[in-house]
Protein: Pyridoxal phosphate phosphatase-related
Amino acid sequence: MAGKTVIVFDFGKTIIEYDSNNWVVDELGATVLFNKLRLTMLWNSITDWIMKELHEQGKTIQHIVEAAYDIGGDLRIVSDANLFFVGTILNHLVLRDYFSEINTNPSFVNEQGRLRILPSPDFSKSSPTMGVIIERIQASVAAEGNKTIIYLGDGADDYCPSLKLSEGDFVMPRKNFPVWDWISKNPLLIKAKIHEWTDG
Structure:
C-alpha cells in the first residue's frame, strides 16, 4: 500500500449523512415495525427481520438497491451497518474503488431473493467492538512501517476505536454528535490528536 497514512471512516452519518439501516427501513415503509422490534431485539437481528417481512410483502432486492441508491491515502471503513447497504451506496456514489477494506456486518441475498444480515464476528452481541478492528488495522499496517491513522466518526461506538489510537494518529469526531460528547468529557484519555469536524 502506498503512502504513510491510513484513513478510517465510520459510514453512516460520516460518509453519508444518514444511518443506512434507518434510511432504507424508512424508505421501504417499515419504520413502525422497526421501532416496535427495537424494544426486544438487537439491531442486526431487527434489520434482518425487517428484510424478511419486506420480502414477504413483495419487496425485492431491486427495491432495496433503489432505496440505497437514493442516498446517494488508504481508505478503510469500520461500520456497524452491513456490507450490502455500505457496498450498494459506495458503488452508487462511485466511491467503492477508493476503499481498500470495509469492516462491517456480513450480508447476502439468499435463494429466495431475501437480503440476510448477520452479525460480524468482530462485533459483540450488544454493541460493536470497533476497537478490535482498529487494533487489527494497526497490526496490519505496522509491518509496512510507520503509518499514521486518521479515524473519523460520529457515534458513541466510535469512542472505543478513538481510545486505541496512538500518539501521532488523529481522531476526528463529528462535533455535537455522541463521540464528540464522549471525547469532550475526558480528552486526556485520547492519545491521538483531536480535530473536530461538522460536515464534509
